[in-house]
């Protein structure tokens, strides 16, 4: 079945600047940082201030560092365990169409596809051309970019990417304006993305509308820990967030990026809890990592 038949817009290009999902909604925090944003794979991406210009800056930034970002996303300490936690928490049906917002270089794809059967499909969405290019090189599919008509038009948009036997696709798009028609998706997730979104709660609500009642949503995010014994590492985490943010992020936010990130992660996970039933929430990695998942009610 083609992507068009499944409700995904079409295009050309191989782009993908992340956008995405959040973390758990339960505030974390020791230090004073917070704009953490993340995109696809490692959790350090960030975006702040003015939506249009900041998004463009973030897309360029992650395009430039795509190779190094991919290495960290795949081989960072403990990151494989966190990706498994996300896929386990999402628990999609074997025949589901799963969309990952802020897919980055596609590091979560194998963990999600391991839970899908022959009829299941994975679609990764990101704004940064560079990270999507890396995802494309590693995967078996081309990257597609939604046309303007398909981004918000009235027509039957579609990307003819799902050929018979093709397990998935990478699509250039914005997590805050998902390039997907409601009803075309069974489950969606975001990893290390919430901190990058100006209004992560609104994004999570939009994803809930996409999957509809009975659909699944899962978030994986990083934020400062509140666990005794681990709080001493919060200053290092703040540095990690700042180092992984596009140039000018701290100035555009007028606040510490880590503080903003904490707030956004909390907001995203709270929105998930408000829209879902049977919510599963857990912390890992000393309390720095948060995973939330549930079924849309």
Number of helices, counting only DSSP H or I runs of 4 residues or more:
11
Number of strands: 8
β content, as a range? 15-25%
Give, in spatial order, the strands making up the sheet with the most strands: 3-4-2-1-5-6-8-7
Structural class: alpha/beta
The sequence of SSEs as H and E is: HHHHEHEHEHEEHEHHHEE
What percent of the residues sit in helical stretches (DSSP H or I)? Answer: 25-40%
Mean pLDDT: 77
> Major sheet, described briefly?
8 strands, mixed
Contiguous runs where pLDDT drops below 50 for at least 5 residues: 1-5, 10-50, 141-167
Shape: globular
Distance between the termini: 28 Å
| Whole-angstrom Rg | 17 Å
Outline the fold blueprint.
Blueprint: H1 3-6, H2 51-64, H3 66-75, H4 79-90, E1 97-101, H5 109-113, E2 121-126, H6 129-138, E3 143-144, H7 148-152, E4 168-172, E5 187-191, H8 200-211, E6 216-222, H9 234-243, H10 249-253, H11 257-275, E7 276-284, E8 289-296
Parallel strand pairs: 1-2, 1-5, 2-4, 3-4, 5-6
Antiparallel strand pairs: 6-8, 7-8
What does the model show?
With 297 residues, this protein is of the alpha/beta class. It is 36% helix and 16% strand. It contains eleven helices and eight strands. An eight-stranded mixed β-sheet has the order 3-4-2-1-5-6-8-7, with helices on both faces. Helix 8 (200-211) runs parallel beside helix 11 (257-275). The protein is globular. It starts with a helix and ends with a strand.
């Amino acid at each position: 079945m083609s992507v068009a038949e499944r409700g995904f817009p079409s295009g050309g290009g191989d782009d993908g600047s992340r956008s995405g999902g959040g973390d758990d909604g339960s505030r974390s925090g020791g230090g004073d940082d917070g704009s953490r944003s993340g995109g696809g794979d490692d959790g350090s991406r960030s975006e702040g201030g003015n939506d249009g210009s900041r998004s463009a800056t973030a897309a360029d930034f992650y395009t430039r560092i795509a190779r190094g970002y991919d290495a960290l996303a795949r081989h960072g300490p403990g990151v494989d365990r966190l990706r498994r936690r996300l896929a386990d928490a999402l628990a999609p049906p074997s025949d589901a169409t799963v969309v990952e917002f802020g897919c980055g270089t596609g590091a979560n794809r194998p963990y999600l596809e391991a839970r899908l059967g022959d009829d299941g499909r994975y679609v990764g969405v990101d704004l940064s051309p560079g990270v999507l290019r890396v995802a494309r090189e590693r995967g078996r599919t081309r990257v597609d970019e939604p046309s303007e008509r398909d981004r918000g038009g009235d027509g039957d948009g579609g990307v003819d990417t799902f050929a018979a036997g093709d397990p998935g696709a990478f699509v250039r798009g914005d997590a805050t304006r998902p390039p997907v028609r409601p009803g075309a998706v069974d489950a969606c997730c975001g990893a290390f993305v919430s901190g990058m979104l100006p209004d992560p709660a609104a994004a999570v609500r939009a994803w809930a509308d996409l999957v509809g009642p009975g659909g699944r949503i899962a978030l994986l995010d990083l934020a400062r820990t509140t666990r005794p014994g681990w709080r001493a590492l919060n200053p290092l985490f703040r540095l990690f967030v700042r180092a992984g943010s596009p140039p000018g992020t701290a100035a555009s936010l007028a606040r510490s990026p880590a503080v903003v990130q904490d707030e956004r992660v909390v907001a995203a996970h709270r929105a998930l809890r408000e829209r879902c039933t049977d919510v599963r929430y857990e912390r890992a990695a000393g309390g720095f990592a948060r995973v939330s998942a549930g079924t849309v009610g």
